[in-house]
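Sample log: Flagellar L-ring protein.
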Amino acid sequence: MTTSIARIVLLITAVGLSACSTLNPPKPGDAAEYRPTAPVAPKPAAANYGAIFQASQSQGLFEDYKARRVGDLVTVVLAENTNAKKSSSTSTAKDSGVEMDVGNVTVAGRTLIDRDLTLFGASATGGRTFDGSGDSSQSNQLSGEITVTVAEVLPNGNLVIQGEKWLGINQGQEFVRIRGIIRPEDVSTSNSVQSTQVANAQLYYGGTGALADSNAQGWLSRFFNSPIWPI
């Protein structure tokens, strides 16, 4: 009786854990790694004699203003297009056979064979075959623009960018989140950079609301399709 109760409790706990993701959908600003970063206030020079020029806010006279400090804005042009396909096939076969036939056997001059039947004989055969195949394909395409902030300036001058974009449509919300590292040289004169030039890119696109919920499996169906289900 105790074992049955323990199994029921374990089943209910697993079902509850599998449904957590649907009960807690993402919200704007809930992920710290995608929040906008405020610019760092410049520190006054140790010896400031009242000059207008400030080294921390300097800009070249013939230089295009592009993102280069923490808190600056940069536009990421989403141009993601991936297409992958993989197939495999395996086939093996093996046949084996063993046969043993003992002929005439005589003991003290007498043949222990009756009507030409072999006294001792054995035979065995075996066969084994395996056929396996697999096919997988995936295609993704994402286009658009998202403006994010510079979160960190690395020692080598590269910029860590992060940000998110939420769009409310009817009964749901669509969101795009991106984080990665870019080179200042890749930022164009219009202060934009291609998403394909973002290193260590973390790009997410999804949605919440009635439309997203209708395209998702229920918690019970996801439980039976989870890896913990034994069959």
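Observation: The chain has a mean pLDDT of 76.
Observation: The longest helix spans residues 2-18.
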